[in-house]
Amino acid sequence: MPETPSSESKAAKGKPYPAAANEGRSRNMRANRRTDTKPEVTLRKELYRLGYRYRKDRPIVLDQVRVRPDIVFPGRKVAVFVDGCFWHVCPEHGRQPTSNEWYWTPKLRRNVDRDRLVTDALEEAGWHVVRIWEHVPLPEAVLAVEEAIT
Ligand SMILES: [Zn+2]
Fold it and tell me: Which domains does the chain carry?
C-alpha cells in the first residue's frame, strides 16, 4: 500500500518562515543574491554561446585581498564583475535605503569601498577589470567584455 504524505510534512511546507513584509521586497532580496544572480548568468551564457571560454567564480589571491570575480579569463588576465545596482550602489538605481538605514548604509558603504579596493588591487597586479552594472543591456555587456579580451 502506497504511503500517504503525512499531515506533518504538509504543515511544515505550509509556513516554513514568517512571510516577508511585502512580496516586492522579498523578490528584490532574492534578485540580489550574491552568486548566480540573473544578469551574470545571462552574460555567462551569452559569452559561452559566442564561443568564449572563461572561468566562473575563480578566486584570485592577491597580497591584500582574495577576490572572486564573476567571470575570469585567466590567460588574458581579465576579471569581470557584474555588479548589482542595489548592493553596489549604482548611480542610476542605487538609492539610499529608507528602512533600517542604521544597518544598510554602512553595509553598502563597505561594499563600495571593497569594490574600489578590489579593483585597485587587481589592476596593480596587472589585471584588466571590467565592472558591469546589472542594468546594462546584454549586448553592451558582451561588448565591454569583448573589448577587454581582444
Ligand atoms: Zn543600475
Answer: 33-149 (3.40.960.10)
